[in-house]
Amino acid sequence: MSYPKNIVQLRPTKGINVDLPPSEVGNEFYTTANNMHFRDGFASRTLGEVQVYPNLLSNLRNIINLQVAGINYWVYTGENTITAVTGSTHSDITPIGGLTTRDDPNTYTTSLLNGILTWNNGDDPPQFWDGVTGNPMTELPGWIAGDRAEAIRPFKFHLFALDLTESTAGQLPMNLKWSSAAAPGNIPTQWLPAADNDAGDTQLSDTPGAIIDAAPLRGAFIIYKQQSTYICDFIGGQFVFSFRKLFVTSGVLSRNCITEYNGRHFVLTDDDIVVHDGNQVQSLLDKRARRAVFSGLDQANFQSSFVVNYEKRKELWFCLPSAGNFFADTAIIYNLQEDAWSRRDLVETAHGAIGIVSDTTVDESWNADPDPWDGDLTRWDEQLFNASELSLVLASTNETTPTDSKMLEVDIGPDFDGVPVNGLLQKLEMHFDEPARLKLVKRCYPKVNANPGTEITFRIGGSDIIGGPITWSAPTVWTQGVSERLDLFAQGHYISFEASSTGAQPWELIGFDLELELRGYH
Asked: Which of 41, 325, 352, 516 could form a disulfide with 308 if both were Cys (CB 3.0 to 4.6 A apart)?
């Protein structure tokens, strides 16, 4: 008996869905994507990363970018050192007397108030830097001797100290205090409340747990515990600020796990990634990517997680340590424009930040570009280091040889600082709305955009029961510019698709067509 040939066109655009069983995942999703992004409506293998500002003086725990008097600096924190780098010059700005060694990256909070860098590690008095490379960091003026805070964050013209330890009262994890208002271009000078200043303090004790972190949002200051969230508003007068509960079932997982985009906070919590505008909160993960975030999260080192807003690409990077890792080794990435989730590998990454990269040690000239005109995947006039764009830089630490730690700018080049990128896409257990019918796949027509000669390996598989073993076709290589179709055979009630690569060249998969026959009800 002959069966009519069907061409099934698949164009997944919404990233991965790993929460539903593969057989229940819609055509707009893949079921697996590793080292893949979803930009411009299709899947693209992750671009590479290159080292910037080489010859670091220490390992890495935190990085932040700032400009002082027209000079661009990156300030990086090691376990007990602080360094400012501009160009190829690294200047030690560690406070006189040194710092307590702190291993956990989440203990460090860095921020800017009036363009001035503030720094805190929870064990030493909070510090600031005046932007002069010959000057070390200095204790915040007016800080009360013997007091400590787990985090320092700016709001309006004030600094807020969160989760306090006071020399007189001991640990006060539900307490916070704020400084006097800073004059324009300066930092606050007083922390002890008095009649002639607007410094103050309060306790958020009507929900359990310590204060973890805080960030401004739409003119308010949002304060997070692990299971609850508060809102702080400036009211002036005797009380200066007002405080009230915002959410009683949603908080934040750890410090550095909050980012703002377009008037909303995106927050990594202890069981979700949520978004809120200061009024309503909703889940971004539900029935889509919750397993990708939490199924492999290391339960001992989850506090090493952090979040970065990669606004240039309209992406939010949720960076996590998987089981057995102290530092983040996985980024779960949400593309705001495409409403799509994906996943990317990291290497011992302690922190990440957005900023201007002014290191020019890499050749950007036409002669240095190895890609041909008709296959170069970079955009015309796209510079490696562009002072008008904010790049994403990752702090990849090396604990064995600290000075081999690297600051890595992402989305540059074809590989991970010389290491090939392994890209993987899967869409498993497709039944094309006919789960009872047997399918026979004969050919696959990938829709690929890549440099000529780029090789991608494809497989097609078949299975007869949900969750059952998949019988895969032999891996077949697609060579861009040579291949027109792939003769791949698979049979079963459920059909699976896979594309992978181990080479250096990036590629984009717009979608794929399958030539198949719908056969009987076996």
From this structure: 352
Q: How is residue 349 written in tokens?
A: 């990454």
Same-domain status, 333 and 370: yes
Banded model confidence at residue 379, pLDDT cuts 50, 70, 90: very low
Q: CB-based contacts of 355: which residues, under 8 Å, 6+ apart?
A: 64, 65, 66, 72, 74, 390, 391, 393
Both 363 and 441 in a single domain?
A: no
State how far the alpha carbon of 495 is from the alpha carbons of 194, 195, 293, 473, in Å: 72, 74, 27, 11
Residue 367 CB: number of other CB atoms within 10 A?
6
Band of pLDDT at residue 380, cut at 50, 70 and 90: very low
Give Cα separations from 157 to 47, 111, 116, 198, 494 (angstroms).
40, 13, 12, 11, 60
Enter the tokens of residue 335: 């593309």
Structure tokens at 79: 């376990």
> How long, in residues, is the chain?
522
Q: How far apart are the first and last CA of the chain?
A: 15
Instruction: Give mean pLDDT, residues 209-218.
Output: 98
Q: Number of folded domains in the chain?
A: 2
What CATH number is given to the structural domain containing 182? Answer: 2.130.10.10
Q: Say how far apart CA 161 and CA 179 lie, in whole Å.
A: 8
Is 415 domain-assigned? no
Cα separation, 253 vs 228, whole angstroms: 11
Tokens 């069907």 locate to: 6
- For residue 1, how many C-alpha atoms fall within 13 Å in the half-sphere facing its CB? 5
Q: Which of 410, 442, 476 is the last residue of a domain?
A: 410
